[in-house]
Amino acid sequence: MIKYLIGVIFIVSLISCEVINTALQTVDGSNNSSKPGLTNDEVISGLKEALNVGIKNSVSLTSITDVFLKNDAIRIVFPQDAIKIKEKAIEFGMSGQVEKFETTLNRAAEEATKEALPIFKDAILSMSVQDGFSILKGGDGAATKFLKEQTTAKLVSAFSPKVKEATSKVKLTESWTPIITRYNQAMTLTGGQKLNPDLDAYITQKAIDGLFFMVEKEENKIRKDPTARVTDLLMKVFGSITN
Length: 243
Prior knowledge:
Elements: H1 2-28, H2 40-62, H3 83-91, H4 95-113, H5 116-125, H6 132-136, H7 142-169, H8 172-190, H9 199-224, H10 232-239
Helix pairs in contact: 2-5, 2-9, 2-10, 3-4, 3-8, 4-7, 4-8, 4-9, 5-7, 7-9
């Protein structure tokens, strides 16, 4: 009887150990029957790689003529602060110049994005991600949101000279000057407030917003579409949250 009890206790102990080991393996991803667990380095590298892929695709696309202009999601329209100028310009019979002005706003953004890729890549490479797993599992746009929060100020600072150069190249002021001059002349006569929005700052922010919009689309594509995971690392990292 004693031998029987000892045998039962021994079997129960073995079963308990197996249950505990299985639970631990499930938590740390080390169960040989499942896919190997991801290291934090792999997650961070995968996130950076996904953003690099997204940025490369986005910059390549947005630097094409008419991509900003004909995409309502990222099209740069007349500055909100200067909407009165637009209304007055149309009233003065300058609809054609208003249309030309809005076109050149978008041309400036398209021209500037040609220089954006190394700026964004540097920002990604210098990104320190301590909470890689939470970003990975954070859902659509989580990596892009984190990147935006960490790098926007630096991107604005680095991007501004490119926009200034681009606005000069597409001769933006040739469209802007007649409109605002006519508006300010009217304000002189009526006693209204003259306006002179900072176009370079406006275009810089809108161009960056447009790029991040496209980057997020690319990130979400990688999250949801296995065919968009163009490297083994991307398949491993993002496959871990879809399988």
